[in-house]
Amino acid sequence: MSRLEPTFTDGAGFGTSYPARVADLRLHIQRQNDLAPAAPAPVSMASVLPGGRHRARGLYVHVPFCFHKCHYCDFYSFVDREGRSGDYLAQVARDVDWTLARVEGEIETVFIGGGTPTLLTADELRTLTAQIRRFPLAKSVEWTVEANPETIDLEKARVLCDAGVNRVSIGAQSFDPRHLKTLERWHDPANVARAAGFLREAGIVNFNIDLIFGIPGETLADWCADLDRALAIGPEHLSCYGLTYEPNTAMAKRLERGEFEPCDDALEAEMYEATRDRLEAAGFAQYEVSNYARAGRECRHNLVYWRNEPWWAIGPSASGFVAGHRFKVVPRLGDWLARTDQADAADGTDGAGQPVVDHEAPDPARHASEALMIGLRLAEGIDARLEARAVALVPARVQVIAKAIADGLLERDATTARLRFTRRGMMLANEVLMELV
Predict the structure, then answer these.
(1) Quick one: how many helices (H) and strands (E) in the chain?
(2) Which of 137, 231, 392, 418 is least buried, going by the fewest C-beta atoms within 10 A?
């Protein structure tokens, strides 16, 4: 299997605790194969979206600050908060103004990711969450914030809870100091449970723990110990990703220099199987290739992505999908802060909006193909109507699907006729998906 798109990992577009890019499998595969065209110059959000108001179920806000750049991470972040967080928060307020003037209906899910949102001070978090509360949030809104275990204390946990945050995703990655060192992930493993304790004391009982397997030097016993440590903390959700060597990351460069050997494919497969067995025995259901939840605790925000539904995006490097338009906000803080068009619109907001790149205009054919690729990652699969549309667009998909069914990788539900991966197929999902592109 290719280390550029490992069978057991999510690839650059599917880090579900980094949802700005979760819906980008097609573009990711193109870029890995040097097929994607060079990105054009940024354009304003106002030139991307049609006039009027638009419905979207979700809202993603990107906080780019980190106190350390982990070696495996290729998401936009940088180690410098002092002197920049004030400018960042002021620009968020202006972009909330612009977006609010174009929102129709209620926002059902919010995700504040990064970066490390909890690197902000308690007062800064209070300012940021106050901006989010200006949106028409549904009473049943799911509001998630990513957190590093070293940057959560009781005061910050209470600020989040008081604001309405009801779900937190804790980036543990591993409980073994050796493997954390390999990842250049600097936190005390004991602080994962400490952070969870602060959240519970503040009133947030729904939290996710992120873990990574397939780390160089990791054994099956090491990985099972990580799963057991995570389960002992009592999360409602677990995201378990195979390590990906993304181009231009420190991990990829270290691999190229021969500093370590990647995890053996057979061992990685054993780790994947052990994950499902252990978590299912503990009461977690696998509802997506890399995500497991107790009943009713699936991440509703990430389901917006996987079901190809629309969401707004604010912040440098944040990706959005509104009115059929896909876009990515310019991926550098300085460029995001430096707006070239500050003319006031008729509604009193900045008429230009955020500068965006990678804009894709509505295309029903592409939309159906994306829905196929993303939806199949879910245990629920896709309905017969979507399958028919996707096959009509690319007739060769009939043979790919038929072969995957014959090989025991795909199946159709006998009652609903939904196409979905089998248990074995989930482990080999990316191989099938790459054939379906």
Answers:
(1) 17, 17
(2) 392
Looking from the CA of 414 toward its CB, the CA atoms found within 13 Å total: 0
pLDDT at 349 over 70: no
What is the per-residue pLDDT across 29-80, written as a single tens digit (0 to 9) for each? 344 444 445 556 889 999 999 999 999 999 999 999 876 544 444 444 444 5
CB 57 within 8 A of CB 304: yes
430: tokens are: 């990316």
Q: For the chain, how big is the Rg over CA atoms in Å?
A: 21
Pairwise CA distance, residues 310 & 395, whole Å: 27
The structural domains of the chain, with segments of one domain joined by +, span 19-306, 364-436
How many Cβ atoms sit within 10 Å of the Cβ of residue 398? Answer: 12
pTM: 0.87
pLDDT in tens, 351-379: 789 999 989 999 999 999 999 999 999 99
- Sign of torsion, CA 264 246 37 304? positive
Tell me which of 1.10.260, 3.30.70, 1.10.10, 1.20.120 is the CATH number of domain 364-436: 1.10.10
